[in-house]
Amino acid sequence: MDIVDRKTRSRMMSGIGSKNTKPEMIVRRYLHAQGFRFRLHIKDLPGKPDVVLPKHRVCVLVHGCYWHRHPGCKYASIPKSNADFWQNKFQSNVARDVRNEDALRLQGWYSIVIWECDTRNETALLNLKKAILQASLWHSG
Q1: Residue 40, C-beta contacts closer than 8 angstroms, at least 6 positions apart
Q2: 81 band by pLDDT with thresholds 50, 70 and 90
Q3: Which helix (H) or strand (E) holds 83?
Q4: Per the domain annotation, does 126 fall within a domain?
Q5: Model-level pTM?
């Protein structure tokens, strides 16, 4: 049972943005501080990736654990009310993510997913930097 009425919940959910989220801003600040230069949400690329590093041919996808279903994460819970709707919604989100990553790969882009919960972890951000540099070497080699 939800603690707010349907109309309020709908308004609350529609207010959740998909761009410039806190996890995305953490990743962008980190990458910029590390000397990476990037573009944001390029419309010509599948899924409009959050961060695009054209020099490295790398797209960084900052996924929210809840919306994109981070496996094994405590933040990837399923609401108790209207569970079938949410299950279908989450499945379509995950399927769309797979399609977008496949389409990016077919266009010659390397995509890296960083999960919302990992943006709070310095080691995960360091691993992101390493992954970008390795992908860059892979493309140039």
Answers
A1: 19, 28, 50, 51, 52
A2: confident
A3: helix 83-106
A4: yes
A5: 0.85
